[in-house]
């Protein structure tokens, strides 16, 4: 028994011999010994760097004071597992730093029996706070990105180097008329006809095997409905910078294409109207101009009335043609 900082520091000398203790105290991991009730018997000096406590403060601390309330039961289960014969148990839990913050720790615990037959638990602990925070951040980012992808109006899918779908967002599922479970793990050839697959596979492979970005337009029919898409294919890299998949990001331009076809049809109709204008109006106009020329030459002779009647008839024809053109044009007015 040794007095240290006004705390009683217990050290099982029959368990920790001097050479072993010197070795333990130079390790980066925290080494602790516990009795079968879970009380601390020994802790290596690294506890000061890891948790801010001195060895004596840890030895005299209660489990409830150090471990997160939600993890106390987990630690008790570990002790029960060791008492039941488990040779090694590993757990991750939260431990309170002296400054009040919670640190994420990972401990590997094993039973040990001394020469007197007493059982102790030896624990090797390392700080995994940084890794855990990174994982939590990545998980949060994953949820955020997935939320953004799912709320996107675009069709988004992830395809691996074997042309197998790894993921498809809700918009892609609606397009295919299938659930995510029915899409994941299926190849392009299994989900699409050969004609559709041939539009995509070469560019997906170019992204995965050559790192190329592709932008292209495609059209196809699914379940009897015609679709037009504007597509972007991008390589997807892992944390090491290696390409492992291709992302397909497609904008549905079906409504735009349908409108373009409608406009093209309307333009054709308008061209017909223009043809009628150029040909149907030319004849009555030529006749009127001829009659005017005859009136000029007649200079007030009795035939004037006949010419005027003829001009009136031609003018009426012209009026009918113009009326017909106005009606047809109103049917084919282009909307913005």
Explain what the structure shows:
With about 325 residues, this protein is α+β, with helices and mostly antiparallel strands. It folds into three domains: about 1-135, 2-Layer Sandwich (Beta-Lactamase), CATH 3.30.450; about 150-250, PAS domain (Beta-Lactamase); about 260-330, Helix Hairpins. The protein has helices at about 20-25, 45-50, 55-60, 65, 70-85, 130-150, 170-175, 180-185, 190, 195-210, 255-280, 280-300, 305-330, and strands at about 1-5, 5-10, 30-35, 40-45, 90-95, 100-115, 120-125, 155-160, 165-170, 215-220, 225-235, 245-250. The termini are far apart. Residues about 1-15 have low confidence and may be disordered.
The helix/strand class is alpha+beta
Find the count of extended strands (DSSP E, 2+ residues).
Answer: 12
User: Stretches where pLDDT falls below 50 for ≥5 residues?
Assistant: 1-15
Query: Which CATH class of the largest domain applies here?
Result: Alpha Beta
Oligomer: single chain
Radius of gyration: 43 Å
The name of the CATH architecture of the largest domain is 2-Layer Sandwich
First-residue to last-residue Cα separation: 92 Å
């Amino acid at each position: 028994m040794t007095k240290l900082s006004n705390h009683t520091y217990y050290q099982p000398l029959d368990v920790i011999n001097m050479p072993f203790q010197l070795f333990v105290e130079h390790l980066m991991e925290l080494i602790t010994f516990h009795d079968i009730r879970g009380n601390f018997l020994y802790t290596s000096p690294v506890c000061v760097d890891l948790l801010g406590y001195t060895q004596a403060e840890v030895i005299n601390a209660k489990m409830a004071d150090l471990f997160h309330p939600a993890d106390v039961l987990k630690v008790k289960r570990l002790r029960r597992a060791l008492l039941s014969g488990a040779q090694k148990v590993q757990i991750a839990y939260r431990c309170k730093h002296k400054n009040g913050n919670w640190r994420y720790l990972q401990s590997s615990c094993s039973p040990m029996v001394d020469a007197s037959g007493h059982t102790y638990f030896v624990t090797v602990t390392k700080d995994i706070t940084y890794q855990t925070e990174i994982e939590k951040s990545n998980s949060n980012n994953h949820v955020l990105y997935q939320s953004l992808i799912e709320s996107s109006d675009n069709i988004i899918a992830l395809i691996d180097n074997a042309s197998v779908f790894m993921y498809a967002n809700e918009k892609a599922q609606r397009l295919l008329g299938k659930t995510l479970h029915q899409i994941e793990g299926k190849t392009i050839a299994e989900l699409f006809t050969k004609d559709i697959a041939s539009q995509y596979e070469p560019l997906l492979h170019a992204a995965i095997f050559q790192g190329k970005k592709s932008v292209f337009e495609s059209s196809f029919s699914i379940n009897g409905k015609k679709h037009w898409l504007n597509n972007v294919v991008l390589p997807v890299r892992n944390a090491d910078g290696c390409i492992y998949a291709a992302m397909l990001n497609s904008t549905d331009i079906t409504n735009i294409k349908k409108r373009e076809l409608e406009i093209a049809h309307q333009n054709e109709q308008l061209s017909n109207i223009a043809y009628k204008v150029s040909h149907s109006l030319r004849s009555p106009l030529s006749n009127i101009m001829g009659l005017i020329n005859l009136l000029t030459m007649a200079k007030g002779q009795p035939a004037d009335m006949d010419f005027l009647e003829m001009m009136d008839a031609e003018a009426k024809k012209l009026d009918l043609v113009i009326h017909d053109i106005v009606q047809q044009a109103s049917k084919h007015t282009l909307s913005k």
